[in-house]
Amino acid sequence: MSTPDDTGAETPLADEEIQALREEIDRLDAEILAAIKRRSEVSRIIGRTRMASGGTRLVHSREMKVLERFSELGREGHTLAMLLLRLGRGPLGR
């Protein structure tokens, strides 16, 4: 991997590497966004189906498992899991 020159400026090769990595991040962001949208849709379908069959919209034990799964990311993982759960609930579950 390239290093900065004596002035601290990036070399052209480093700029190309950075650009390639940024493009990878952009692709990953698009995949993450698509996955979040699909996850929210599936979660809403589950909630509607449960309610239609006389069940509750939310299952606390299931939500706790989601929080536990994301805990490997630390405090930010908990925050991320809470946001995903909120997105999946839709407007009535907030």
From TrEMBL:
<dbReference type="InterPro" id="IPR002701">
    <property type="entry name" value="CM_II_prokaryot"/>
</dbReference>
<keyword id="KW-0175">Coiled coil</keyword>
<keyword id="KW-0413">Isomerase</keyword>
<dbReference type="InterPro" id="IPR051331">
    <property type="entry name" value="Chorismate_mutase-related"/>
</dbReference>
<dbReference type="InterPro" id="IPR010958">
    <property type="entry name" value="Chorismate_mutase_highGC-bac"/>
</dbReference>
<dbReference type="GO" id="GO:0009697">
    <property type="term" value="P:salicylic acid biosynthetic process"/>
</dbReference>
<protein>
    <submittedName>
        <fullName>Chorismate mutase</fullName>
        <ecNumber>5.4.99.5</ecNumber>
    </submittedName>
</protein>
<dbReference type="GO" id="GO:0004106">
    <property type="term" value="F:chorismate mutase activity"/>
</dbReference>
<feature type="domain" description="Chorismate mutase">
    <location>
        <begin position="12"/>
        <end position="94"/>
    </location>
</feature>
<dbReference type="InterPro" id="IPR036979">
    <property type="entry name" value="CM_dom_sf"/>
</dbReference>
<dbReference type="GO" id="GO:0046417">
    <property type="term" value="P:chorismate metabolic process"/>
</dbReference>
<feature type="coiled-coil region">
    <location>
        <begin position="11"/>
        <end position="38"/>
    </location>
</feature>
<dbReference type="InterPro" id="IPR036263">
    <property type="entry name" value="Chorismate_II_sf"/>
</dbReference>
<dbReference type="Pfam" id="PF01817">
    <property type="entry name" value="CM_2"/>
</dbReference>
